[in-house]
Amino acid sequence: MALLWTLLVVAVAVAVAPACTRYLGRDAGYPLGVIYLVATAVFLPAAAAVLRGEPVTYSAAWVPDLGVNFALQADGIGVVFTMIALVIGAVVFFYSARYLHDGRHLSFYLVMAAFTLSMVGLVLADDLILLFMAWELTSLASFLLIARSGYGGELASLRTMIITFVGGLTMLAAAVAMIARTGTTSVTEVLAHPVWDEDPTFTTVMAVLVLLAAFTKSAQFPFHVWLPDAMAAATPVSAYLHAAAVVKAGIFLLMRFTPAFHETPVWNYTLIFTGLFTCAMAGWFALQKTDLKKLMAYSTVSQLGLIVATIGVGTGYALAAATLHVIAHALFKSGLFMMVGVIDHAAHTRDMRRLPALRKQMPWSFATVVIGCASMAGIPPLLGFVSKESVFTAMREAPGPEWVGWVALFGAVGASVLTFSYCAKIVFGAFVDGDRDDLVVHEAQPSLLLPAALPILVGVPLALVAGVFDNPVGYAVQAALPDSDHEPHFVLWHGLVLELWLSLAIIAIGVVLIMNRARLRPWAEHDTLNVDGAWVMTRMVRAFSTLGRVLVRTVRADHPTRHVAPQFVMLSLVALAGLPAVMATVGLAPLTPDLGRPIDLMMLVVIVGGVVGMVTADSRLAATVSLSAVGVAVTVQIFSLGAPDVGLTQLLVEALTILMIMLVLQKLPLRFGRAPRYGQSAAAGLAIVTGVAAGLLTWGLTGRRERTPVAQYYLNEGPAETGGDNIVNTILVEFRALDTLGELAVLGMAGVAIIAVLSTIRDADVDPPPEDDRSYVPAPEVPLREPGSTAYRAITESWSNAVPLQLLVRTVTPLLALISAILFLRGHNAPGGGFIAALVGSAIVALVYLSAAKDHAVGPPRLPVYLIAGGVLTAIGAGLYGLAFLGSFLEPQSGYILGYGVGTALIFDVGVYLAVLGLVICAFNLLGAAQDSKEHTRERADQQVEGELPGPMDTVRGERPGRRTTFLASDTPPLRGGGRR
Amino acid sequence: MTWVIPITIGVLVAGAVYLMLQRGMVRIIFGLALLAHAANLILLSAGVSAWRGEPLGDRLDLETAADPLPQAFVLTAIVIAFAITVFMLALAVIGHNDDTKRMPETGEFHDR
């Protein structure tokens, strides 16, 4: 339980961070740091148990169906990394409380705490899924912490995220493959699985995937580029994440999977040589930098390389050395990062060329940095010296022929010369050299200096009693190499061994270099390569987007021809090639006799006439008339096929559609205009081929079967099952009500989509003045009698023309309402139902709209949206009733009131009715609005969302008016998209 | 007479394809309407046009009753086609110009 409690205490830090920052501002670092120390104390019993050799585990079922557990486990590795994360985290929080300027810093403290939680979760995870999730969360937190540092951090954070997520993907691939192969998600069981010995190929592939993941996180070549980039983040972030935590996650991963891979040559050699190369390369780059923080970043990359190489050696001694160096590095590097922050605070720059010689003004800082750098450079008697000596010894144990060990050793030594040099450069560049005297600098206040110095200073006594690490490191080694019997024994003084002479040689060369630094610095301080990682990443991103644009050019177009034509071509190909193939191989079933009736032929004649009329018409009005002729013929055909419900629906829809088309046509040019001839013949050719294909398919694939069982069921059982005689209607509202619900949603969404589209376009663009159109013809001057005469009114004013229709509406409306109600109620037993009734109701809307002398919106502005929403909600409510009381969504319940069958199906039909009515009102109000009417289309669209407005809103896409906008009244423009009011 | 409805469907599809390959949005909408008619008739003939009795419980003749399932599908399809038509009509009217190759001014960039 101690493990779970540790995580919970850290989670408390996340939970209280908002409150702490609200009341304490930057001082929130103190309570949060104390919480980390509490977490450490909670963790100590578990750590003590591990150091007694007792495993500490916790497990709770998480996704039992998949065998995934929320499993935690503390072993030697977990203890070391947890302690680093918590203790360094606490120190960094204490430091942040003084480093940050006054202010709330919520995002900093919150994300830092969330990061610690995911880091501790990662190192304690005993389940691959949990481990992967924690791994990704550390990446995300790291991204956020860089991204929050403002404009400079944006691109850097994105590059960091891309690189670390590449590693996340390989980690995911590895985790999934391991789970699939071993059949368990437990890390312990996976690592103990015999597959690692039995299948070298699998082991090698997994090793490569895991080491790629670790390389991206621990900034190994060629993924090292993100770390210097990440220096855009605040200094405490660098001190914690980029020295002690997130970069160590990769090291942790390598150690965690060492039991499986330590005898895989690819693993050993890739780690050793990439690590040493990274170490040397980053050391060289560090030497070139004058910005202290950039220098630190490269030095971190370099030190990580050394650790990676040591892990690659894969022996017990090497892993002990790597673990000790992880500890030592976490201490001195986080301290040094914080000291850079101290210098930055005091001198307001961290560029050596602009820093005065600070040793006089900042003696304490000077002493601390000297100790930290000495530890990094491996000078006795410091912890860094002990660990580096061990690393040298470990290098000689590198697997393979003996020369590999010597190459590794001298690679490490060569890199250490660079390490010594850049350490010296830090000290001399910041504190000794520099002749600037115009800068008044004071020593930092103790509350800032102390937390920064603490990790460095504890390295001094720890080196003298290096033996205290024997036990924890020993258990870490045992966790990484279960079959190793190595018992580490760290001491400061090994005697006059080779490693000591090497250390002395490094120091000697380094001293010579320091003596000649005045001559060497100008030579070193320029970039070897004039490209950096950021440049490469930018180029890659640009190349990919160019490639994407080239690829998409083949398929993108705004006009629809290019999108629809291929589909017709494909349909024709499938039909014309597939049908003969089917006939040749399977053969067609015999046609059912008596498929056609004489009336079909009559309708064919009408339809052919109508289609020819539509295709040849140049006048829009003529084409519309032909369309309505086709529609009526099709309706008759549907009736003749024995589908009264469908026929009624088709007829009513046809009428409404034609009305809406007429509304639209009044705003469009009178004629279609001509198109290029070759395009027309191609279209005609494709049309004929597709038509033939469709006809052949219909002939070949329909009318050749017996009744299906499902049709038999509906016909035989339907009426008894539902209590309704109209089988089609019962299918719609009971048997397949979910289909109808979907259709209802489409219907409603069409209305919402119209409003949405129209309200993204400027008023002047939706309704341009008619003179703007190419085909504009000014109204003809009709010689009329004088204004006021009857003839004049009849031509120029429409109200008198509308009077007959208004009279008609008065008498017809109640009649239509009655018919609508009857159709609605009888729908279950006779042709009718929600749709048909709603379409009749819509006819009332159409009549009311058309009978007005001028365009005038029907109903209150927001009525359509409410109707659509109400309809969908009613239908869903009827469905939920079924779910709650009858056990299945949309399951109908029927009863009888006054002899009428009433049930949830009827309520569902009410929903259908409302939604259809909403769409129709929405369409009439929007399509009818015109330039010369009082309200423009855009204003109508906005009103459907906002309610009554005094005029069109002059807003464009991306601006948000907000609820009940006051834009027009107060002249305050609405906020930009995404802004909060 | 078995070939009549297939020919009707073929004519409707041919007209639909021709119109949908035109530039003007209104003609495309008309094409879509014809295509919807054709699709509905195909669905109904999938219910075998030899049986044309109305599937109403109180006058049901199991020998001649039409298949109710395609009818339910077609009813749904008609309403959805209606919704799409209305939506496209709204698009056609923007800028008082329904030419899909020469886009109306909307403040956006267009690739041809």
- The count of β-strands of chain A is 6
Quaternary status of these chains? heterodimer
Measured distance between first and last alpha carbons of chain A? 46 Å
Total of DSSP H or I helical runs spanning 4+ residues of chain A: 41
User: How much beta of chain A, percentage-wise?
Assistant: under 5%
Helices and strands of chain A: which structural class? Answer: mainly alpha
Overall pLDDT metric of chain B: 87
Strand and helix order of chain B: HHH
**Total count of strands of chain B:** 0
Helix percent of chain A reads 55-70%
Q: If you average the pLDDT of chain A, what whole number results?
A: 87
Helix content bin of chain B: 55-70%
Runs of chain A in which pLDDT lies below 50 for 5 or more consecutive residues are 956-963, 976-981
Overall shape of chain B: it is: elongated
Greatest interface and its participating residue counts = A-B, 131 and 94 residues
Please outline what is shown here.
By secondary structure, chain A is an all-alpha fold.
Structure report:
- The complex is a heterodimer of chains A (981) and B (112).
- Among the domains of chain A are: 284 residues, no CATH class; 76 residues, no CATH class; 218 residues, no CATH class.
- The C terminus of chain A is likely disordered.
- Chain A starts with a helix and ends in a 5-residue tail after the last strand.
- Chain A is built from 41 helices and six strands.
- In chain A, a hairpin with a 2-residue loop joins strand 3 and strand 4.
- In chain A, the strands form three sheets. Chain A has a two-stranded antiparallel ribbon with strand order 1-2.
- Chain A is mainly α.
- The longest helix of chain B has 26 residues.
- Chain B has three helices and no strands.
- Chain B is mainly alpha-helical.
- Chain B has one domain: Helix Hairpins (Orthogonal Bundle), CATH 1.10.287.
- At the A-B interface, helix 26, helix 27, helix 28, helix 29 and helix 30 of A face helix 1, helix 2 and helix 3 of B.
